[in-house]
């Protein structure tokens, strides 16, 4: 039992012959859960008397304890929790249940003595790590000549999350993280749990632009997932970089692709906060930048909007220089993506922003700041500290243990907090629809002002929004405006409407395609009318607030349930 041996038998005594017992073997081989010999002549670790002093725990428990140590749980807390867990399950019955302080102390020493630098040369160190942890690598291409470094990472726990939460859910990309601070930028693939928090299920480190090597690593990742479940398929892929090859994503994931504007919104508002100190000018410029993206019907409309914007704010040279050097060159590609792809809702913005801030805090607070540029350091931080914190948060949610140690950075995101604000705390002025007010939930005497309500480019004066983040007040007002139908159509609804108008003005030549489109449009119109009649007659029960607002956009962010 101490060695984790699964060999066991049942003893049956014969009633007529009490001095004889019948032994029925349930498992005759002396192996552990993984099927490896755990004692005897076949076990290399059991030679001589070593089996008495070197019993080993399972890999599953080792990973669990290591994750707790990386998450900051003390040695005494881990041992006490394990004893309570074993007692709750009826006492010890295998080697894992005999976890001792020495076991945990040995793993703690291993963490303190381990080093991310396996070789003086960074590229060689990454190659050595990939060989030692091959089961966590789904794609690896060494940097040689014209070929860039591409390393795809996914642990067993991340694979489980992708299989569970990604099935009929959303997969989102968070690309180009650390473009200025890391030697190679990081691209993350995210899924969303029932609380709409983003969970990383794969990391891709690439020395080239993430869009250039997407056709190389995305296929092997899908093969890895399909090997576990060949019926696995997400409902949508949220793309944050318009330079990505959408045809590759559709072919690999076999789902629709949506455009996520969180990176665009954040970079613009961060640029304004840094280069323009006047708050009134900030919100007006941000509103005009949003109008540029709204002019997506024709290329001339976009160019006219850009020229008008630059003429109005020509005196603000600092931001204009930033806009010309960083934004203007990518604007055509962004507008093209908006014209061809549906746009994801703000719910995904809040979830991805929460992940970005969490990831950024992990790297800023890292103690090995002198080794930050190296790729082996990045791999070490991702697979130990970042991975352990997300695992530990899920462990707390599932078991209820260590609630006092739960990481505050994984608290509900802005979307979840917005749903807690009562509708009565939102004040809309019918005479001035460009302004809304939201009463503070912590100080009832304070009300925050929101400009351009209902838009993806609304601007709030609360401290969280003033730091360039998506705040709960903006999301709550947006939900209210959509529910009451008092706001202008969102960007995704406008693009959807323009697509339908273009289809009506330029019908397809193929009569079969035209007939199919008309049939779908007629069916949708009848369904909408039927739902409206049911609602007016009182036969349709009222929807919950968080569900109703998710259905008013043409393209929404689908929640996951555990």
Automatic annotation (TrEMBL):
Domain of life: Eukaryota
Matching InterPro entries: Znf_SWIM
UniProtKB keywords: Metal-binding, Zinc, Zinc-finger
PROSITE patterns: ZF_SWIM (PS50966)
GO molecular function, one term: zinc ion binding
Signal sequence extent: none
SWIM-type domain residues: 448-482
Pfam families, A to Z: SWIM
PANTHER family assigned to the protein according to its UniProt record, in alphabetical order: SWIM-TYPE DOMAIN-CONTAINING PROTEIN, ZINC ION BINDING PROTEIN
Protein name per UniProt: SWIM-type domain-containing protein
Source organism (scientific name): Kalanchoe fedtschenkoi (Lavender scallops)
């Amino acid at each position: 039992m101490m060695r984790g041996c699964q060999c066991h038998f049942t003893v049956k005594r014969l009633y007529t012959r009490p001095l004889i017992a019948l032994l029925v073997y349930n498992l005759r081989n002396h192996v552990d859960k993984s099927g490896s010999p755990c004692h005897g002549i076949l076990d290399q670790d059991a030679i001589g008397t070593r089996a008495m002093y070197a019993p080993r725990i399972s890999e599953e428990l080792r990973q669990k304890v290591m994750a707790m140590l990386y998450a900051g749980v003390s040695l005494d807390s881990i041992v006490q929790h394990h004893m309570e867990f074993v007692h709750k399950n009826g006492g010890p019955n295998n080697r894992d249940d005999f976890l001792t302080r020495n076991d945990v102390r040995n793993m703690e020493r291993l963490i303190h003595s381990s080093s991310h630098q396996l070789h003086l040369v960074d590229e060689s160190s990454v190659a050595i790590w990939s060989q030692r942890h091959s089961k966590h690598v789904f794609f690896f291409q060494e940097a040689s000549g014209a070929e860039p470094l591409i390393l795809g990472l996914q642990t067993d726990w991340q694979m489980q999350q992708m299989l569970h939460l990604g099935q009929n859910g959303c997969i989102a990309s968070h690309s180009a993280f650390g473009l200025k601070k890391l030697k190679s930028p990081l691209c993350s693939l995210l899924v969303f749990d029932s609380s709409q928090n983003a969970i990383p299920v794969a990391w891709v480190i690439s020395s080239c632009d993430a869009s250039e090597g997407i056709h190389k690593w995305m296929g092997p990742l899908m093969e890895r997932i399909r090997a576990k479940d060949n019926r696995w398929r997400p409902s949508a892929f949220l793309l944050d970089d318009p330079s990505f090859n959408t045809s590759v994503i559709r072919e690999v994931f076999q789902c629709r692709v949506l455009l996520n504007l969180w990176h665009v919104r954040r970079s613009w508002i961060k640029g304004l906060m840094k280069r323009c100190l006047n708050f009134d000018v900030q919100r007006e410029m941000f509103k005009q930048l949003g109008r540029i993206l709204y002019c997506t019907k024709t290329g001339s409309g976009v160019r006219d909007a850009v020229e008008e914007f630059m003429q109005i704010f020509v005196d603000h040279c600092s931001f204009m220089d930033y806009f010309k050097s960083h934004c203007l060159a990518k604007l055509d590609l962004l507008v093209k993506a908006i014209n061809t792809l549906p746009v994801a809702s703000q719910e995904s913005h809040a979830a991805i922003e929460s992940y970005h801030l969490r990831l950024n805090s992990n790297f800023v607070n890292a103690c090995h700041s002198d080794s930050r540029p190296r790729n082996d350091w990045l791999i070490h931080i991702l697979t130990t500290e970042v991975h352990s914190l997300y695992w530990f948060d899920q462990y707390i949610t599932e078991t209820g243990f260590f609630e006092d140690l739960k990481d505050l950075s994984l608290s509900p995101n802005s979307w979840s907090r917005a749903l807690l604000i009562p509708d009565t705390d939102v004040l809309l002025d019918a005479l001035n629809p460009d302004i809304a007010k939201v009463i503070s939930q912590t100080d009832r005497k304070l009300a925050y002002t929101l400009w351009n309500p209902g838009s993806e480019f609304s601007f709030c004066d609360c401290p969280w929004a003033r730091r360039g983040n998506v705040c709960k007040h903006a999301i709550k007002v947006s939900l209210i405006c959509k529910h009451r139908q008092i706001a202008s159509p969102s960007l995704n609804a406008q693009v959807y409407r323009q697509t339908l108008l273009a289809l009506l003005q330029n019908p397809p030549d193929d009569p079969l395609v035209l007939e199919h489109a008309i049939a779908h449009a007629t069916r949708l119109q009848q369904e909408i009318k039927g739902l409206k009649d049911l609602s007016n007659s009182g036969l349709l029960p009222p929807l919950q607030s968080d569900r109703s607002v998710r259905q008013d956009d043409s393209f929404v962010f689908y929640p996951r349930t555990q």
